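U., I forgot to send this yesterday:
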Amino acid sequence: MVQFGENFQRMTSVCILACAARFVSQGSVWLGCTVVAAAAAMTGCQQPAAFRAASLPPQYRAPIVRSARHLDLSPLARATGGTDVIQPNDLVAVSTATGLTSDKGEPQILRVSPDGMVNVPLVGPVRVAGLEPQAAEYWVRQASMERDVYRNPHISIQFESRHTNNVTVLGAVKTPGVYALNGANSDLLAAIVAAGGLSDEAGTKIDVRHPPDSLVQAAGYAATSANVQGVSYRIDLQDDRTAAGADLSVRDGTVIMVPERVKQTVYVMGLVNRPGDFEIPPDDELRLLDALAMAGGRRLEVADRVSVTRRASQNGAPIIISASVREAQQNGAANLRLAAGDVVQVEETTMTFTLETLRNFVRLGVTTGLPGL
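Result:
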């Protein structure tokens, strides 16, 4: 019942506002203001402002609907030290030559711990995460000499296998699925690229959910925070600030969801052949004449006056925009660009009412004059 009441109030407001626009466009400003005051009293909202389509202030003009496929995805990449650096959970082969023999001996296959250390036999733990193999060799050699294990050893470190993160990418991407990402290059951009990129139906928002730290630690990864329930956040590709303040890295078990874009529509009513909702094409614009054509055109060619009810902001009062089909055909500025949620009404005038009445009367007379009807 509450939803019904809200819808009824909204439709009542739209109809009264459209009526007010009709009076304003006809020059009856006093009568239009009276109707607007009645709308405000019935709906409890502020009195809407009225404008002409050709002189609409910039703050009320409709933006072009952008799709995600043409947006810059580079902000989704985190800064990394390169793909050749050693990462936690990498397997490395460490060989040591003491100089006493020419044989280096069998390489030791060691796993880098979650905190970035590698435990070299006889030498002990040495931090190597974030270093390239050549730099890691230097620090292992230094540690072995400082700890009086070897005097002048030759250390060789090579990658045995790289740590990977299994990341799930769902929603409006070309190939949803689970992807193994290189640990040194595990970020949102890499995950979306692995899934084939965004699809044509993708919206501009991306939802990210990291697993709880308890699961991360159980899998052998370091906990980054006191996260026992997982971390979820949303990034808006149209707002660089959301990516700037977010952790763009992904971990083993991270789930990325790309919701489909919400279709942006306008509603066309009044003296048109097919009233209804019509979608604004992404990366394009929908003008007044386009919307009327999508609605099957006007029922009468003389129907010239159009009113557009627009919500100026999410919580703001609506405004009324008066337009003319004739002006829109002659002047591009009068061919109003429509915004999502606009209600377009081809208005009835005294002339259109008279012509429709006569047409219906003639049609009724012809129908009743036919045998068997």
